[in-house]
Amino acid sequence: MALIFAASLLVLVHSAVAFDMGQSTRCVAIPNQMKVCKDVGYSEMRLPNFLGHSNLEREVVPRSEDWKPLLQTGCHPQAQAFLCSLIAPVCLDTFIQPCRSLCVAVRDSCAPVLACQGRPWPEALNCDRFPAEEDMCLTPHAKLNHFAKDLPKPACQNCPAVEEAPSMKKVLDAFCLHDFAVTAKLHRRRLFSAEPEFEVEGRVEFIRQGPLLPYDTQHLLQQWLLINLQCANALVRPGRSQLYVLTGSVQADGTLALTRVFPWHKKDTNIAVATRKWKHHRC
């Protein structure tokens, strides 16, 4: 997956250099199979696009799929609008590019996610190539409300320690040392589909809630898996689900860090006993 994505980014670099704003263009309907941009708010796109792609079936649709893993991480609320303004530019009487400020906002949030997965921010998306806001271009939306900004956020991190067959004391110590502890079933799909490869199945159960919010925690953990793909690959085999006890903390900058991972197998009676004793345990 990483090699395919890296090769696609090389294609983007060469295509963007070749695009000529003065060339003739045509308008086409955004096809149903182009899921990345199907719900972007308009139905027709201009070809060639701003990445120099002119063939809908052989270039535009396949290349748009390359961005799906990044968009699924939720790295920036306007990442889809930014990328689709280049992949599937709206069909109007004039060219509408993203503003440089929008590019910078998306890059600053999403480039660390690519870096976490060993990929650079593509030169084709160099923000210097986009117009300043005084020109006609797609601007960033207003900032999110204060409450949304205060929610914990997943981030790139070193993979947490995986503790196989831990003692009851080790599990209880982990509960004491960290802000939160939850049980979650992690699943990895075996085949490509429109859905994320990794997901959190079912409900997340709290052992120690700490600063986490019940309605947000499942989504938060799933985003963590999609950002930290190397860790996720090590934790879950394709086509399998695995129940884990996860402990961690929310850092001063609001990012979530997983610190201990306990695979919970049927034979792990120490984990079961530790979760029962926790309610009355004194650290």
From TrEMBL:
Pfam families: Fz. It comes from the Eukaryota. Residues 159-283 form the NTR domain. One of its GO terms (molecular function) is Wnt-protein binding. GO terms for cellular component: extracellular space. It is found in: Secreted. One of its GO terms (biological process) is negative regulation of BMP signaling pathway. Residues 22-140 form the FZ domain. Gene3D superfamilies: Frizzled cysteine-rich domain. Residues 1-18 form the signal peptide. InterPro entries: Frizzled/SFRP, Frizzled_dom, Frizzled_dom_sf, Netrin_domain. Keywords: Developmental protein, Differentiation, Disulfide bond, Secreted, Signal, Wnt signaling pathway. The keyword Disulfide bond applies. Disulfide bonds join C103-C127. Its main location: secreted. Belongs to the secreted frizzled-related protein (sFRP) family. This is Sizzled. It comes from Cynoglossus semilaevis.
